Amino acid sequence: MKAALLLLASSAAFAAPPKGYSIVPKSTSPDGKLAVIAPDTQAQPTKDSHDDKLIEVATGKVVATLVSPTAAIHDSEVELEPRWSADGSLLEWYVDGKWGSYALVLVRVDHGAVTSQIDVRELAVHEVLAEVQRSHAAAAAAAKREGAQSGWWFRDGLAIDVKPAGITMTNDGPTIPRPAKLPLAFDVTYTSNPKSLDTYPAAAIVDGTLAVAIDEQGKLVRK
Fold it and tell me: How far apart are CA 169 and CA 12, in angstroms?
């Protein structure tokens, strides 16, 4: 009887996610109070879909909807890699995709409430596009024409990968550092020819790297 009561109390302490959603593995905050939920399936995600949410584990209450495009748990083309700082004040919502990063958002949390979200990927994408336009305007225009039918993830014909700095490769896969506090460093690579096609026009080839950081004010700065 005592065991049954303990089991009942334990199950009552955690609310089930909404139908069609599950808690993302490794997304629970250090104190166990917050976690990210994502759709179990997502057939056709778009740049305007925002369905991943930070919730209170005990109540199921949505604390914030993440500003990044929807990433589904069972989508074979993405890998969800959330990381919390040790003190639970910063969530790094990192999703790796087929051609590079799919999402990279920093969520700042204070006593269970979200104080801000920083879309690192989007900030870095804008920085890349401005840099390419400044430095290689003709090639950028050609790359944009070549990549016009590549899909919404490609930006102006470029595959842009934004990832946490300091990722190391092991036999078990990538090891991603846990975020501590701002400022945080990120590595950016971009290319107009991600498949390395021999037939890709030379005049449209754009390749490069950037090292950036998000400072204490949540702004992107070049390193």
Answer: 40
CA dihedral sign of residues 81, 182, 128, 148:
positive
Backbone angle region of 23, left / alpha / beta, with phi > 0 → left and psi within -120 to 50 → alpha: beta
pTM: 0.89
**142 vs 156: CA distance, rounded Å:** 10
Helices (H), the chain: 2-12, 120-135, 137-146
**pLDDT 10s digits, 112-159:** 999 999 999 999 999 999 999 999 999 999 999 999 988 888 999 999
Give the separation between CA 101 and CA 10, rounded to whole angstroms.
37
CA distance linking residue 68 with residue 152, whole number of Å: 14
Two tokens at 168? 């190391």
